Write the structure tokens for this entry.
Amino acid sequence: MTWLNQLDPTWQFLLFSALKVGVAVVALLTLVAYTVILERRLAACIQDRIGPNRVGPLGLLQPLADGVKSFLKEDFVPGHVRKIYFWLAPALIMIPALLTLAVIPFGSRLGSQPLVIADLNVGILYTFGIVSLGVYGIVLAGYAANSKYPFLGGIRSTAQMISYEIAMGLAVIPVFMLAGDLNLSRIIDYQSHGLFSWLAFKLPVSFVLFGITAFAETNRTPFDMPEAENELAGGYNVEYGSMKFAMFFMAEYANMIAVSAMIVTLFLGGWTLPWFGLDRPAANLWVGLLQVGIFLGKVAAWVSFMIWTRWMLPRFRYDQLMKLGWERLIPVALANIVGIAVWLWMKS
Amino acid sequence: MPFKFFFYLIALFVLYSAYFVVTARNLFRSAMGLLAVLIGIAGMYLLLNAQFLSAVQVVVYIGGIVVLMVFAILLIADVTQKVFEQSPRWRQGLIGAASLLWFSLLAGSMLSYRFGAAAAAVDKSGSIREIGRALLSPAAGGYALPFEVISLLLIAALVGAVTVARADADNGEGKEGKA
Amino acid sequence: MNTVNYLGLLRLLAPETVLTITGLIVLFFDAGVMRRQSIPRRQQVAAFLLSAGAMLAIGWSRHYSLADPNSTSMLVIDPLTQLMKQVILFLTIFTALVSLESKFTPHVGEYFALLALATLGMMFLVSSVDLLMLFVSLELTSLSLYILTAFQKDKLESSEAALKYFLLGGVSAAFLLFGMSWVYGLTGETNLIRIAGQLRDRATDPVLLAAMVMMLIGLGFKIAAAPFHLWAPDVYQGAPTPSAALIASGSKVAGFFVLARMTLAGLAGAEGSGVWNGFAPGWVPVLAVLAVLSMTLGNLAAIAQTRVKRLLAYSAIAHAGYMLPALMAHNTMGTIALLYYVTTYALTMVGAFGVVAVVEQQTGSDAYDAFTGLSRRSPALAVCLLVFLLSLAGLPPFAGFFAKFYVFTAAASASTRSLGLLWLVILALAMSVVSLYYYLQLLKQAFAVDPPAGAKIIRPLPATLFTLVFLALLVLLLGALPHLLVNKLQAALVVSGL
């Protein structure tokens, strides 16, 4: 390993960044595959079924089979679609999830390398910008398909994304007020003083609001209006098939993972655990790896929670959705900001 | 020279996209062009080391305003199908000539001036903390006053938008236009 | 005074603060308490609240402490700005009272709140000495005015006018901002005084000239000077009449004041020269071009009009042309002349629009025919109209005469050699004669022609009639005793040193 230390810093940085990017992307895609099987198995449990259990031990190779199947299908382009946008939409929809990962610290460090791809000063703002890009994939898909159901899906998705993005942004502001920084690594530092320094406990209102809006931003039930398979037959992705459809499908899960990672980072202490000194940057390789494991475990827990919710709750009606967003969440979020501000002001 | 290279690259991209916005004959395509312009400008900010501004640009313009525009365009379904007619040739030529004249005047005056090193402006883009302080400071050099005037501007815009959009028959229909 | 805090800022801006609160109160009171009342009643209450707030603001604006120039570099508070703010507030009150007459919208609270916000923008505009502040308050004014233009939703013309106003306004704001950004790039300053200091020794740089032209384009739009006047006729015509009154009066006052501030303070040293045979590049020749175009085009186009609001619009363009020479004189006398002119002109314009509002509300039209035999149908209104129009034409003993007189003498004696801007004054005089023709044309319709059979008697509301008569008397008074206002302006100007 000595040759590594002899490289000049620029090259070292480039090398490690490339490595981190590669590992993160591969890990994300693998996780996506296994989130799908997790969803199917959990759904089966909840509905008292067995679920996919034939491919490989416990059905664990099912994602592989699904992937192969997607590739073997004919990549069909209906005649009435707008071609450019039709091709662009599935490509666009994966980007936000991948970009979000760039600023999320998924561990303290391995050796001398911090485990975050880009330690931006404006970390959270960046993620919000990226998350808001997610809507374009759906809108473009809806517009490109040039038929009714996808179109309605696209419209619903824009309205929903905008409405809930405001509440989401407002919900996070108290986090900055307490932590005093937008950098995600600093926010984790702030949470590394015992269990009750986790922002989920310090800012329960923000946590709940952010949790709710996270469902809406990822189009998960009870907010899956853009897909609404019983009214819109799947919504924005009706006209898609084969690998293009698979992209939309994967993007949904990738977005779930990304948003879970954000919640873990912002509210659940990131890669830290308040016991055994696991809330300090790792001293050696094994602790470093363990902390990555802790991070992944927390993400998996939140993802499972999202899946569980999906199979337990019915979908909102459109007007209920709007009403909840504008008349409940946003006022509560505003009141929360004012409340925290007053509390901080009294304390100082 | 990578800075110069990227600068011209982004500038070209922004200019071409802006041209596309104006000339596209379908409203949806125009909106997509506008999206490209705004992304380019966010990139420009990033190039100038204004990370915060760049992120805000993405959140506000790309994530908010253009999405709203697209939403409005989609709701007016006819517009997505419609292809606008172009102005007659002679008018296009005239506009082109006038723009060219204006551009050469501006460019000429720009080129004739010997710009020194960067103007002696205080660099306040460094940290978000400083931006926040400057934005809300009532003392000299602070921007509390314009900040408050802008909030009045937003009230005016809000009241105006609601009034203009709301149906005049005061009850019942008011709830529609909220999304 | 290093520790400027928010409270200090609020105290410094007490009139603005009062008006802000008034606007919000009007909005919420109307939406909350007055919801179920009839529209005229809501109008009365809202107009009363707004006027009361504005009166309070006027009262407060008389007690100010001279702001320490270092305490805030964005604003200047001195006798002159306070005086102009009072003028603007009075104009708003008159507009609000005139609004009582017309029924064009069910959104009463919003309308009066936007009146307050527009006024607020103008007040900030008057005070600002910083490019940033100037632009922001200009946008506040413009945006409120765009919306006020669009308020008559049952009339297509109103929306069309608002859209035109908005689009052209947006373009002009872009020019203004682009010019400002160049100036900032040249100097690294946004404060007008410091900019002037920086620019003193490079007044004729092509870059500065280009920036200056762009800023003047932006402000030229605001004062509706040709060739940036295209919006004015349509907006005056399409907007609800009270909105048009505010656009023609308050926004004109603020626009000219800020133009004066920008040129006299910010671009001091870059005047150039507009003297015949001796042109030199700078803002004076640019304004000279605007003035010539405005006077000629405004007056000639006004002759061909058949609707009174359009007539007033073109005459407004012409009046912008008359006022510019006072600015070009760039001496104290010129500035006083300009401010006197724009104040009396704004008062007259509110009155004229008030008369039109009454006639339009009761006959449904503002065409010349609607004014036929007005002296028989409503003598009081007809006399008011006579006063306002003759004052606009510049006949003694009305305020308009002295306004023109001051401006022309200031311009003619601006430069000691070769009689300075005399050529402009001669043109302006010739054009005033032209303008007399179309004002008299309308007055002939009102006084000499018999009303058509079956024409209704026109009965304005008492409050409106009172306002109009008051305005007419004011115009007469300022014409008879111009020194009342001139002395005040002079005293204020000496202190503020603009």
